[in-house]
Amino acid sequence: MWGLDGKHVIITGAGGGIGRSLVKAFLGAGAKVSACDRDPALLDPIEGVEKVAFELTDNVASARAVNLAIERVGPPAAIIGNAGFTRAETIAQVDAATWDTEIAINLTGTYNAVAPVLPHMVAAKGGAVVIIASVNGLAHYGNPAYSAAKAGMLAYARAIAVEHGRDGIRANCVCPGSVRTPAWDHRLEANPKLLDQVLPHYPLGRLVTPEDVANTALFLASPLSGGITGTAIPVDAGLTAGNLRFVREVLGG
Question: Domains of the chain, with CATH numbers?
Fold first, then answer.
């Protein structure tokens, strides 16, 4: 169904909550997966993949690791740029160090992983780049430095789509809203009623799951989305569709 049987797919941030769901989805579609992360220990539990550990903010190390994975597994049919990092912050909390870190990991790190793959896709006359961005790249929901990085990732995907379209390369972004990963656990331990405050913002009345994100990335990486490029698809339980609380509390009230 997916047209990825035996195809090589590179996934960054594979050891995290979304990353592991991405790995599972692509293995389930028959792909050969190179699972990449900065911490080898995060990759230990993952089976059936080529494991690649490198520091995403190091351009030379990233290129070396990506090219080695391609040498071992074969030409890449797709790369899923999933690795990312943020902290809850407002503008008043952003200093130069915070800004540099968020840009380096999220935006520059995405470039460092994707750029070495493009010449291989050009040589193969095709491929798919899928970048896991965020609704923060579409509108402001806090985390200014992270949001700026995610907006940059959308621009980078569009650049690839426009400049490499004639090479058969497609590039798209998935823009999740809040995703129910283990990263929420410490927040809920501190405030067990936190979701009662969060969920009213989402028309579907729930948070997005890692599987929701992975399934969308799988679609965008597959030939089933062969006519789609240069897009950003929100996977956000309706968050960016409109302001549900305004409708209910202001208009409805």
Answer: 8-181+207-238 (3.40.50.720)
